[in-house]
Amino acid sequence: MIDRAKIADPTTHYGSARAATRHFMTQRITGALNVLFTIFFVWFMVRLAGADRAEMVSVVRHPLVAIVLVLLILNVCIHMRIGMNEVIEDYIDDEKTNHLAQTANLWFAILVAAITVISVVKIVFWG
Amino acid sequence: MAARSRPLSPHLQIYKFTLTMANSIIQRGTGMAMYFGTLLIVLWLGAAALGDGPVGVVNAVYGFWLVQVVFFLATWALFHHMLGGIRHFIWDSGNLLDPVGRETITRIQFVLSIVLTVGAWVLFVWLKK
């Protein structure tokens, strides 16, 4: 059975020796924050689902909403990038395809974050 | 010394399929579904930044019943994945890893994710109309 002592024992070698601990911690920290962001996200979706543009602008323009929304987007993108990378590392055996997929994953996360953050900034400052 | 291939580790098909195994796959599945689901948010917020016309188009498409089914499933994916994360925090702390505990906590996760999803839709979507 895997117990506390086994998890804590460094000689049992769980995962990559280079980056596993950082990914492990980042995934859990962003995950814990995402639990809090979920409350905001549900409120945001309920408030604005199906709303017209004028109403969206009026809600998103509130500084607290805009700031939390941007932080949520960044947090989610970091979390989903690590998550998808785990899946790629596990299931794509060919090394070249694996690296290509990891690069594509990184850029997908960056683009999702960039487009949404730019959209929010545009709404906040220019309506 | 003659090269001999190393023994392969047993994979999924060797073991009896269990609830926690299925849920592990579901945790990855819901994560990957939401990964691509972010595109729905990208389109929505992007349209809002562009103008009234694009928002109208997105709202019309998102209001279509089939897309509403996707949103319902996405709500469950969000809650189930989130509760799965909390379950992992409990496991990371070394608790409920025994055969009975891990099965029980997984069952609780399914019940809660379904209750939260149906509850959210009843309260915020169906009763709102």
Could you please describe the fold and organization of this structure?
The complex is a heterodimer of chains A (127) and B (129). Chain A is built from five helices and no strands. Chain A is an all-alpha fold. Chain B has one domain: Fumarate reductase/succinate dehydrogenase, transmembrane subunit (3 helical TM bundles of succinate and fumarate reductases, Up-down Bundle). Helices cover 78% and strands 0% of the residues of chain B. Chain B has four helices and no strands. Chain B has helices spanning 19-50, 52-63, 65-92, 99-126. In chain B, helix 1 runs antiparallel to helix 2 (52-63) and helix 3 packs antiparallel against helix 4. The N and C termini of chain B lie far apart (76 Å). The mean pLDDT of chain B is 92. At the A-B interface, helix 2, helix 3, helix 4 and helix 5 of A face helix 1, helix 2 and helix 3 of B.
